[in-house]
Specification:
By secondary structure, the chain is α+β, with helices and mostly antiparallel strands. The chain has one domain: Nuclear Transport Factor 2, Chain: A, CATH 3.10.450.50. Helix content is 35%, strand content 46%. A six-stranded mixed beta sheet has the order 2-1-6-5-4-3. The longest helix has 18 residues.
């Protein structure tokens, strides 16, 4: 576990110095979050979530960072797939960014696996040079019109 956390710190450090822009850094952090979810890497996930995280699921359920990590570490929640697309990031301030996009995921929740395609809206804040997610809301896209 220490190795994965060290790898995450090094990756975030590289992202902050090697990326073309702060919005690229936010996108890199979101991709790292997806990799942590699929790998089951709780320390890496914890490092990417702000202590004051608020996550509103597509079901309407509201969770804090500790709620998210408790479900994850108990393995009541797990991911087989977490694919991101249509990512758009914009800076609100030099320390706050909004990220939107789509998630195509296979997730274990409530004892069964579900394939979900979701839209998401996330707020990321740079704390001590590291981007951390402070807010996430997911929603199922509207059904296509006939």
């Amino acid at each position: 576990m220490k190795t994965s956390l060290l790898g995450l710190v090094l990756m975030c450090s590289f992202a902050l110095t090697g990326a073309a822009s702060p919005t690229d850094d936010v996108i890199a952090a979101e991709r790292a979050r997806g990799r942590a979810l699929v790998a089951g890497d709780a320390p890496a996930l914890a490092a990417l979530l702000a202590d004051d995280l608020v996550y509103v699921h597509s079901s309407g359920k509201r969770e804090t960072k500790s709620d998210v990590l408790a479900g994850f570490t108990s393995r009541k929640v797990a991911y087989e797939r977490f694919d991101l697309s249509l990512l758009e990031a914009r800076l609100v301030t030099p320390e706050v960014a909004v990220l939107t996009g789509t998630i195509d995921q296979r997730k274990l929740s409530g004892g069964k696996w579900n394939d979900l395609k979701l839209l998401f809206h996330a707020v990321w804040r740079r704390d001590s040079g590291v981007w951390r997610q402070v807010s996430l809301q997911t929603v199922q896209p509207p059904a296509p019109k006939p």
